[in-house]
Amino acid sequence: MAGVAVVGSGNYSLEIDTGFVQDAFILDDAVAGVLNNTTYVLDGTTNYAEVLNGCTNVGVKRGRRDQGDQFSAGTMNFVLLDTDGIFNPFDQQSPYYDSTTQKPGLAPMRKVRLSRYSNINVKEYLFTGYVVNYDYNFALGGIDTVTVYCADDFYLLAQTYFAEFNVSEELSSTRLSAVLDLPEVAFPIAQRDIATGTQTLGGAAAYTVDDGTNVLEYCSRIQQAEQGRLFMSREGDIVFDARLGNTLSGSIADFHDDGTNFAYNGVGITFEADQVVNRASVTIAGSNSPQVADDPASQAVYFIQTESITESLLHNNAAALTLAEYLLEGEPEARYTSVQTQFNMLTVAQRDTLATIDIGDTITVEKTFASGAGTTELAQELAIEGIEHSINISNGHSIALFTSPTTIVYEIILDDLIFGVIAPSDNVLG
User: Fold this and answer.
1) First-to-last CA distance in the chain?
2) How far apart are CA 16 and CA 74, in angstroms?
3) N or C: the chain end with fewer CB closer than 10 Å?
4) Does residue 139 sit in the same domain as residue 18?
């Protein structure tokens, strides 16, 4: 089995791009310069350093904790014990020092990736991104340590700004693709997973994107208009889910506290006024006419609880009003907000499932409650909004999943392989 063993959890790999390439084609070289060889290729392949052996713990945070939050850059932090000084940026004898450039090979903005190997030795990524910062602690008379801070591609988008460009009236997904195609962004096509949007965005002069507009901020406004999801996957792909796409996934993991299915050691429950939205206001960009939806019955019980969106990218007031009505949530609902478990509590197959779980997937959480009649089991189907990994080489791997309510849609969807099939008890018209 490849990788480094983590107690009770499986084998893992933590790799940092060294800045070197291997297997590169070299002109006039007797071995590496032979045309049509299968070993040496143009540009070579990236040489990664495996650093998990010198690591004490790894923490990953991706997505959001609450459905109302915006998605931000996913992060990973880890601590390295530098017993041999190989991570010292001043050490020219380090195997990671580039003598050609006279610079450390392990440098900021190099690619980094954390992965776990499945039971059949398949490498599954838990995080893919870039090193942002090396924080060195040189301990006199002790062991030097390096804390490494990393972020995914959202960090790069947050550091990028537009030159002014005009937009057309188009679907949200088309707009997002156009943004990613811009030369100042140039996000790789191979790293895109963009579903067809359901909302039309405006293209009038008022929607011209100003010079100096932040790319990630603008992409978040596209997501806000669509009310889907926009995030970086565990494999480093930018993912855009349409509004309807939030509801189509069946449960891939059932968490129970009765000794069956996926065991867990913690579950979060909320029942709060902040869940209520009984007045929603949406104003499109270039307009001063907010479109307002109200729920008078809810207001009579819970007072007025308002959600407001200004400068929406939606194309007209009718779409803004539809969004306002969509945002209404008249009643608070007691629901599960998170579930935590440890890999050493799970079977081998269950560990493999959780390693590949991602934002937007659906899980089921069931808890047993004591009541006057004995016990009651309450299960809820939930969508994953955020994922946090905590890996300690000596103590194992724990995972926390942050969730939101989800509704499985059984309406007929034309041309869909699952939801386009008419069945008496499954998919129906309307």
Assistant:
1) 51
2) 17
3) C
4) yes
From CA 251, how far away is CA 234, in angstroms rounded?
A: 19
Same-domain pairing of 359 and 264: yes
Residues 29 and 134 in one domain: yes
171 with 212, same domain? yes
**306 within 8 A of 333, measured Cβ to Cβ:** no
Give dist(CA 245, CA 226) in Å, integer. 11
Nearest CA to 307 out of 287, 328, 321, 290 is that of: 328
pTM of this structure: 0.89
What are the structure tokens assigned to 162, written together? 């537009």
Closest CA to 192 of 139, 154, 236, 224: 236
Alpha-carbon span 231 to 313, nearest angstrom: 19
CATH code at 65? 2.40.10.10
Q: Are residues 87 and 122 in the same domain?
A: yes
Report which of 61, 229, 239 is spatially closest to residue 151, judged by C-alpha positions. Answer: 61
Please answer whether residues 252 and 384 qualify as being in contact, where contact means their C-beta atoms are separated by less than 8 angstroms: no
Question: How far is the C-alpha of 147 from the C-alpha of 350, rounded, in Å?
Answer: 31
Per DSSP, the residues of 38-66 read SS-BTT-EEEEEE-GGGEEEEEEEEE-SS
Cβ-contact 383, 360 below 8 angstroms: yes
Q: Say which amino acid occupies 375.
A: T
Domain that holds residue 212: 156-240
pLDDT at residue number 430: 47
**Region 32-46 average pLDDT:** 60
Total domains, the chain: 4
Do 208 and 136 lie in one domain? The reply is no
The C-alpha atoms of residue 133 and residue 150 are separated, in whole angstroms, by: 7
Taking only the tens place, the pLDDT of each residue in 200-219 is 999 877 778 999 999 999 99
Helices 215-226 and 172-181, packing angle to 10 deg = 170
Mean pLDDT across the stretch 158-166? 94
- Pick from 226, 251, 254: nearest CA to 240: 226
Averaged pLDDT score across all residues of the chain: 89
The contacts of residue 197 (CB under 8 Å, 6+ apart) are: 171, 172, 173, 174, 175, 176, 226, 228, 240, 242
As a whole number, mean pLDDT of residues 270-276 equals 91
What is the predicted pLDDT for the residue at 419?
A: 52
